[in-house]
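Translate structure to sequence.
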């Protein structure tokens, strides 16, 4: 088992070395993005149902649910629940949007490396240019894969949050 983990670590290190320093930045952004998305899934599945039950029980305990003031209180509680649900979603979506841009930064730095090799050694040394080309393509690929995973899961998360909020609204009857 330990040997297997060492092989995986060596593969990751080789991939990161071939992709250059920008690949570490892509990995850091991806890590932060996934930590935030997992936190939002945790909040959505374990914390918000209890908060919504408390809001619904507070609403049901009110004697007045028909006046103008009662409607404003209901809207305020729903708005607070919406804010709690959408917390950090803008930051997650920003990180998703940044991933391809960081990958393109890797493309630029890799091509600069290729041009540097061409200036020093000429165009005849394809082996030395290959390292720069690898540094140009791997961060782009990694940034796109990171963005795609983020788009898919943040969209699902957003949809689940909207459904949760609608269920809360439907549970708070008003006349």
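Result:
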């Amino acid at each position: 088992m330990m040997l297997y983990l060492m092989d995986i670590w060596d593969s990751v290190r080789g991939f990161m070395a071939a992709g250059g320093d920008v690949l570490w930045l892509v990995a850091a952004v991806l890590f932060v993005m996934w930590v935030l998305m997992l936190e939002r899934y945790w909040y959505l599945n374990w914390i918000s149902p209890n908060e919504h039950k408390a809001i619904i029980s507070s609403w049901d305990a009110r004697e007045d649910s028909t006046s103008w003031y009662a409607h404003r209180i209901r809207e305020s509680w729903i708005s607070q629940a919406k804010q709690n649900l959408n917390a950090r979603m803008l930051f997650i979506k920003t990180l998703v949007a940044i991933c391809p841009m960081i990958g393109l930064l890797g493309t630029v730095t890799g091509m600069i490396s290729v041009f540097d090799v061409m200036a020093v050694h000429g165009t005849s040394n394809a082996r030395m240019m290959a390292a720069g080309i690898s540094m140009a393509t791997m961060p782009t690929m990694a940034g796109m894969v990171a963005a795609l995973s983020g788009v898919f899961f943040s969209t699902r998360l957003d949809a689940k949050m909207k459904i949760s909020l609608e269920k809360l609204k439907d549970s708070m009857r008003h006349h």
